[in-house]
């Protein structure tokens, strides 16, 4: 069966092999039970990357679960994922497929889907608290009827998407004159599905000299009211300026587009 895994907390009933099994879903410590020797031996979420969710675009990501049993692997019968701290989630398990690697081992990939429109309905508290560290639970089944129900087979981060802008002026600028670089850092608010300024964050101002391959950090500035950024630098060469935010546990990293500034001739 497949379905949306929203308010996952407390306890859940799963059915496998014709028997109802009580599974405790806790935010701390792994739990597993079942029948036979089928086991999950490896789980990779989204290729090892964070899952970033904005305010409108549907996000789809894979959970690759390696399963092993002497009789061979039949597949996945349940996959769920939710925040480890509060048990809340907004992800829909929308499909799965298995690739046989040997007579005993298969990699079964669950397709998970997030529609941001679901998020405000997932809790009577601030929906933004759902961002952070998430866990994966799964029930797997073997060809001989063995099954295994396990929680916390993997952990990963679900983050709020962010935006970042850069504007440098004046353009062009005289060599040795002051250049003002401004910008704004904002992030997705899952309560109203819009982007709000992200204040009090350390954001790096970076510069790449014209013709150079890489940016280097010039200084670090804290975002102010409404996520605004502003600083002055001395223009020593033509090149591009940008802001870089390394992200937090709950907010995605972001790099703005560069703003090229020429020197006056």
SS-based class: mainly beta
Major sheet: 5 strands, antiparallel
List the helices and strands in order: EEEEEEEEEEEEEEEEEEEEE
Proportion of residues in helical segments: under 10%
Question: How many beta strands in the DSSP annotation?
Answer: 21
What is the gyration radius calculated from CA atoms? Answer: 24 Å
Tell me what portion of residues adopts beta-strand conformation.
over 45%
Average pLDDT, to the nearest integer? 89
Strand order of the largest sheet: 1-9-10-7-5
Low-confidence stretches: 1-29
Number of helices: 0
Give the CA-CA distance, first to last residue: 69 Å
- Shape summary: elongated
Protein model, in words:
The chain has 265 residues and is mostly beta strands. It has no helices and 21 strands. 0% of the residues lie in helices and 58% in strands. The strands form five sheets. Strands 1-9-10-7-5 form a five-stranded antiparallel β-sheet, with no helix packed on it. Strands 4, 6, 8, 11 and 12 form a five-stranded mixed β-sheet that branches. The chain is elongated, with a radius of gyration of 24 Å. The model is unreliable at 1-29 (pLDDT under 50).
């Amino acid at each position: 069966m497949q379905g949306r895994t929203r308010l996952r907390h407390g306890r859940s009933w799963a059915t496998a092999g014709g028997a109802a099994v009580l599974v405790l879903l806790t935010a701390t410590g792994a739990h597993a039970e079942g029948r036979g020797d089928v086991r999950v031996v490896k789980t990779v979420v989204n290729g090892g990357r964070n899952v970033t969710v904005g305010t409108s675009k549907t996000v789809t990501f894979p959970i690759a679960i390696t399963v092993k049993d002497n009789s061979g692997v039949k597949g996945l019968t349940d996959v769920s994922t939710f925040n480890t701290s509060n048990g809340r989630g907004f992800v829909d398990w929308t499909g799965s497929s298995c690739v046989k690697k040997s007579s005993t081992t298969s990699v079964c990939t669950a397709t998970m889907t997030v529609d941001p429109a679901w998020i405000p309905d997932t809790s009577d508290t601030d929906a933004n608290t759902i961002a952070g560290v998430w866990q994966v639970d799964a029930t797997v089944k073997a060809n001989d009827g063995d099954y295994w129900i396990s929680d916390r087979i993997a952990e990963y981060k679900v983050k709020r998407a962010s935006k970042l802008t850069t504007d440098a002026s004046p353009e062009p600028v005289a060599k040795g004159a002051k250049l003002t670089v401004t910008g704004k850092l904002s992030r997705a608010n899952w309560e109203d599905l819009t982007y709000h300024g992200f204040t009090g964050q350390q954001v790096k101002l970076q510069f790449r000299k014209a013709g150079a391959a890489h940016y280097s950090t010039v200084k670090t500035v804290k975002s102010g009211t409404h996520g605004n950024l502003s600083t002055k630098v001395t223009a020593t060469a033509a090149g591009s300026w940008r802001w870089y935010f390394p992200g937090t546990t709950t907010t995605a990293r972001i790099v703005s587009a560069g703003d090229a500034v020429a020197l006056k001739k």
